[in-house]
Amino acid sequence: MNFGYETKGATALNTGKFFASRFIIPDAGVLSSVSVYLKNAAGSAQNVQVGIYNDNAGTLGTKLIASASVSIPNAFDNWKLFNLSANLNLGGAYWLTTQLENSAAIVYLYSDAGTTSQKAFVSAWVFGSWVDDPPGLTYSDFKISIFATYTPVSPSAYSWAQMPKSQIEAETIEEAIERIVQEHDDDATAHLGTDQSLEAHKSADIIDHLADSIIEDKIGDGEVSLQKLTATHRIIISAFESLDGWLSGGTKVLELGSLTLKTANTTNAYAYACDVPSGIVGLDWDKDFFWQATVKLAQITNQEVYFGFGGSAYVGGYSGAGFKISNGTLYCYHWDLVLAAVTYITSEIAGITLTVPHVYRIFYDQSAGTLEFYIDGVLKHTFTADLPTADSDELALFQIKTLENAYKYLYIFDLLISIPK
């Protein structure tokens, strides 16, 4: 089916470079082409384009679709068809347009009388441009010889999302939806109204925040009161103010915020500190635990060092996990006397300067079955297999053993332990 003016008009238009006429499509459809009557009297081929604009309350609005440039041969005098494809509205008004590379004085269009302001044209026009709301148009009561061919479709089959919102708004429904969604996404105050989701989140457990994000972002230094501290965990924070409650061997030097362990200057001499076994479970492999200490060495060779959670084969206990330094090589380890007969399962950790203080951390996640080892907040190794099962009543161990006739030193600056009650 066609809509437009399918008759060659009686009046030849010989002024202007851009022409348009307003027509109303009687039903919904899919556009296939636009045809315009042209006469080329230039003596040479001339370039022509056609297009369709949305209607804006009786004037040209925004461009819907445009053709490529087509060369019209000399002496052409007939209807010229331009292939186009677009969805058209139900009963919508459109402007069928033509633009010429050169003036209509040499390429003629034709027109007849039409309705009020049905025709528009302009003399100055940049060929190939399709600006929205074209400026400088002159409107008159004529219609040019131009029509569109389309295939009608039922409203249910029509691609409604590609339709303009109205006859005066060229933005399609789909474009409007995308724009509104984007505006919503960009609105930092969205959902903060009464009974909306983010407002409700202020007082309800709705959104799961990233680990530590609330602590870093919302809680200031010194703002946590005693009633906010845990009632479900045993928290041990020590800077070795005394050695009450500790078993120890070798020479011990207590300073403000630190403990130094010193061996004798003979081979296989020990210096150690571990908590006094209480006869109750301290390290329970059915529960999570967290252990942290700051440690450094005076030398790295001809010595063997253990520090961590639980006991050791030398000072007792049934299981443990920690860090081992053997002749300058750093390892993380775990052991279980019941399962492995004091066989330490180890993994080497490289790149750590042992003669400067580092924060050594151990975290055990019972439900995940992971035993993680961190240095200065960086995860270095995770054990996931053959983890200990035997409980221990010891919580902390620091131990250094000589492998030569020389004094050896182990410096410990702090200790932090968290275990479920």
- Strand runs, count: 31
List low-pLDDT spans. Answer: none
Radius of gyration using CA atoms only = 43 Å
CATH secondary-structure class of the largest domain: Mainly Beta
So what's the overall shape? rod-shaped
Average of pLDDT: 87
Write down the CATH topology of the largest domain: Jelly Rolls
Helix and strand composition category? mainly beta
Through-space gap between termini? 83 Å
Tell me the number of helical segments per DSSP (H or I, 4 or more residues long): 4
Beta-strand fraction estimate: over 45%
Main sheet, how many strands, which sense, barrel? 8 strands, antiparallel
CATH architecture of the largest domain: Sandwich
Total tally of structural domains: 2
**Helical amount:** under 10%
Give a written overview of the molecule.
The model has no long low-confidence stretch (mean pLDDT 87). The protein is mainly beta and 421 residues long. A hairpin with a 2-residue loop joins strand 28 and strand 29. The strands form five sheets. Strands 17, 19, 20, 22, 27, 28, 29 and 31 form an eight-stranded antiparallel beta sheet that branches. Strands 1, 2, 4, 8, 10, 13 and 14 form a seven-stranded antiparallel beta sheet that branches. It contains four helices and 31 strands. 7% of the residues lie in helices and 49% in strands. The protein folds into two domains: 2-171, Jelly Rolls, CATH 2.60.120; 234-420, Jelly Rolls. The two termini are 83 Å apart.
